[in-house]
Design brief:
The protein has about 120 residues and is mainly α. It contains five helices and no strands. The N and C termini lie close together (about 10 Å).
Length: about 120
């Protein structure tokens, strides 16, 4: 029972740290997005906002499964985009490793909400 909340907290913690520079419109993060993935500053900020909102929902998992479901969907949209862009940029599995790990863990958290 407690493990699922710890798992949701782990994913949320990682993504909050990742989202803050994007939401704050950090120049270094914007440069990485533009040069590494050919994505605009606005796209970066939108992805960061989805990550942040999704992470807050994951942290609220102690209040109910619906929060996990909403958070997991929001976060996985961003993570799938990240995996795709890493592969498109030629980074391969090594470059997408972190996003793939979080996507997998987050998907398991989502699936677990449907167990009785």
């Amino acid at each position: 029972m407690m493990l699922k909340h710890v798992s949701n907290g782990y994913v949320a913690n990682k993504l909050i740290k990742s989202s803050l520079p994007k939401v704050k419109n950090d120049d270094k993060a914007a440069k990485q997005f533009e040069e590494g993935f050919n994505l605009s500053r606005n796209t970066m900020r939108f992805a960061g906002l989805l990550e942040l909102i999704g992470s807050v929902f994951l942290l609220m998992s102690v209040f109910g499964k619906i929060f996990v479901r909403i958070g997991a969907v929001l976060v996985n949209i961003v993570l799938l985009g990240a995996v795709f862009k890493h592969f498109q940029a030629g980074h391969g599995v090594k470059g997408a490793k972190s996003a793939l790990k979080l996507f997998g863990l987050n998907t398991l958290n989502f699936i677990e909400t449907f167990r009785k």
